[in-house]
Model the fold of this input.
Amino acid sequence: MRGATLALGGRVLWRDLDLDVRPGELIAVLGSNGSGKTSLLRTILGEFRLATGEATFLGQPVRRGSRHIGYVPQQGLSDVGVSLRGRDLVGLGLVGHRWGPGLPSRRRRRIIDDLLREVGASEYADVPVGLLSGGEQQRLRVAQALASNPWLLLCDEPLASLDLRRQAEVVDLIDQERRARGFAVLLVTHDVNPVLEIVDRVLYLGNERFRIGPPDEVLRSEVLSDLYEAPVEVVRAGGRILVAGTPEHPHHDKSHGQ
Amino acid sequence: MSTWLSQLFNFADYGQLFTLLINSVIAGAILGILGGLVASFVMQRDLAFAVHGISELSFAGGAAGLLFGIGVVPGALGGSLLAAAIIGIFGAQARRRNSVIGVIMPFGLGLGILFLSLYPGRTANKFGLLTGQIVAVDDPKLGALMVISLIVAIGLLAIWRPLTFASLDPDVAEARGVPARFLSLAFMILLGLTVAVSVQIVGSLLVLAILVTPAAAAMRLTHSPTRVALLSMGFAFVSLVGGILLALGSSIPISPYVTTISFLIYLIASGVGALRATSHTRFKVHPGHGEPHYEGDGHDSVTHEDHVDHLHDGHKHLQHGEHVHEH
Done:
């Protein structure tokens, strides 16, 4: 992204954003509610148009429906209830965008089985997704995203509503897959700690601006205070990083970005 | 009692009646297969109320066709398509959609009753639109039903996968560039066509028995979208053809037969589904087993007290990763 500015509903979320994502790199996208983290992912998916600047992917301007971008959404799968099994979800990631009914195919079934095995979801491939735990649903989500052989994986709060143990498992899975397959990852999260071990850089959005760099360079009191133009304190305790005092956006409307 | 029964079931001269009413049986068979297929998408997209709304406007259209001499089929088609377009355009969000339907449905029903009251013909024809009638299917009508059904079937097959994607997993479908808005409108139009056909056979009040119940029953038995569609087609077929065959000799409209069979299938499917759930993995969580177990999480799987109970029931628990299997 070069000089990218996104405005939604008349409000600027971020301005003049320069971001290069290299193959195999994992970047955590941080920032308070309404700072435009989810909107950044949706811009890359071609769903929002930039006010200024440009966003390109593999040398082409971003567009809707790119085969090479995988997406793990924030939304859980409980709403889907019992009308879809894990293997159907992965199948949708593989061929759901194609027209026609799709005849049963042994080859496709094998691809789906391989993906399910790869993420360790074979055991519950035939269970309705609505009955699975949050961690199991996330594994299926990752398998679904891998089905399109992505060069870039976008994850929106993949760890929300998981307990610590499950968080660590999902983080491990994403890390393993990107190392094995070499794709880059943009991972939106409100808490950097579960991914601190594996991130290459963090992108911190706030106050219409941004800071990017290795966690040690960005997650510092003086850097974030400068970003927000207000006192922000970054505390390191017990191997965890806590950010205190980030101002919430006063006119934030949930429907804009989150 | 015996007069009731002979009204309900009368198989005298059955062979002759069957030959006379073969058109209805064929129409029922086609509609069963088509309706069951559409029903599985109605359930996926949570459109049961929309089906009801469209069928009332289809009734109004059919009544208008009767009154103004345009014909019932074109009238019902017009009403259906108008309702489907209104719901499709103004009701993108579920909540908004329900209020749109709630507003147009009584209006359509009222209009239909008005047109019927003004119609000077026989009353038996009139109520056929509401409750369905068996003698209604002549050759031109059967031809029209076949053509419309063919259009719907081809349309549905063409949008099958993206429609499933957009219905069940809208966020990822959107990210993958699936045209959700186009699919939503396209499906509403196909639904409108199907409703217009159904109204001719089962009547507008009971269209739900064809376009909702069979898929609801199928969903109690399987969790695969493809199998739901296939089972739903079978159930709707049995309900319609069975209902028509039972109704042939009686003086009663066909809809009670169709709806009763449809409902019985649902009851049986629910029963089978519930039975399976008790003996199957995962669908039932025992008290104390809601949380899966992990090594070193403080639970000892061997000496777990609940385990002993369930071994008495003749099955054991196996742990795989995050969850508990029952065998």
Q: What stands out?
A: Chain B is about 75% helix and 0% strand. The longest strand of chain B covers residues 317-320. Chain B has one domain: 2-278. The two ends of chain B are 51 Å apart (CA to CA).
